[in-house]
Amino acid sequence: MSNAQGTASANSLTILSKGIIVVVRICLLKSFTLGENILVSRPEWYMTTAQFEAPILRKSIWQIINTLVPYFLLWFLMIRAIQTGYPYWVILLITIPAGLFMVRLFILFHDCAHQSFFSSKKANRIFGYISGVLTFAAYDKWRASHWRHHATVADLDRRGEGDFWTLTKQEYLESSKWKRLVYRLARNPFVVFILGPIVIFLLYQRVPIGSQSKQERNSVHFTNLGILVVVSLAGFTLGLRTYILIQLPILFIGGMLGLWLFYIQHNFDGVYWTRHEEWDRMKAAMKGSSFYKLPKILQWFTGSIGYHHIHHIRPLIPNYRLEECYEAVPDLKEVEPLTIRKSLRSLRLHLWDEIDQKLVNFRSI
Predict the structure, then answer these.
(1) How far apart are CA 20 and CA 180, in angstroms?
(2) CA angle at residue 152 from 263 to 339, to 5 degrees?
(3) DSSP letter string over 64-120?
(4) What average pLDDT score do residues 144-162 get?
(5) Each residue of 212-247: pLDDT tens digit?
(6) How far apart are alpha carbons 94 and 76 in whole angstroms?
(7) Which single residue of 1, 106, 244, 308 could bond 265 by disulfide (Cβ 3.0 to 4.6 Å)?
(8) 3-state secondary structure of 225
(9) CA atoms of 255 and 257, how far apart (whole Å)
(10) With contact defined as beta carbons under 8 Å apart, do 148 and 213 qualify?
(11) Domain layout of the chain by residue ranges
């Protein structure tokens, strides 16, 4: 072979190699692999959402101030009301806004768990533990469970990680009478939203059940110790009775509202569920997570978590940048908003019908 022919062959190989690299890069731009060889579609606008992941320190600090200061002021008002002999119903009225502030504080805790509230992992962890003590949630235990929820949401074959118990219609029909009874109770609004806050925050979060690592178990013990310190200090200064009369209703209201938010984020008419081999992360985010359009005041208290489809697309976006992201990416507006009135209908949806691909109620059986 002549030198000229060798050079020509080398140039051809170089061009071919570059062409292959370009094709591969284009393919990678369109999609990515998420474990177990699951190919997940990624639309053109996906990369645009990444610019909203950076936390803004002044906004994070301001959120801490405008959440904790009024929360503690409400505590002060309730303490003074009890000490001066006001009727207990007055204190209960004040626990309503206090419960809303607890929901907002939990959203900050939630962002810390995603490492999205501060740029520093250490800062997220410190404030995560502090807010965890105030909201009765063990930081590392909850964080691990919640990340598993993000990885498995809308996957019928990987249910049970940080979500509400959901059976398919066929599974329910094949269940024993005892399991059917337990499932009906588990999907009953009274059990979920009245007993749920007590069971989850006063009991489940106090024990290392479900913890899969030493770090998760330790977080339960450290959080319990922090709560014990707070209760002890309150007992010595305010009196244990005063503390309980204030803390329990706040925890109940905050927990009830928080559970409702978590429920409606993945249990609504038109939601997406599928088997593991067909599961798609982007579909799980866009179709398996709701866009809960709330009045501005409730959006503020809930830290814009109603933009839940965006949160599942980019979990690292801080709560205060979710709306900004929504306004900047037109494709995100294709998700139909879920209003408060429409969301109430979700309470009548109990089972996933794999044939019709929708949630149905018990009457459909």
Answers:
(1) 55
(2) 30
(3) HHHHHHHHHHHHHHHHHHHHTT--HHHHHHHHHHHHHHHHHHHHHHHHHHTT-S-S-
(4) 91
(5) 799 999 999 999 999 999 999 999 999 999 999 999
(6) 11
(7) 308
(8) helix
(9) 6
(10) no
(11) 51-364
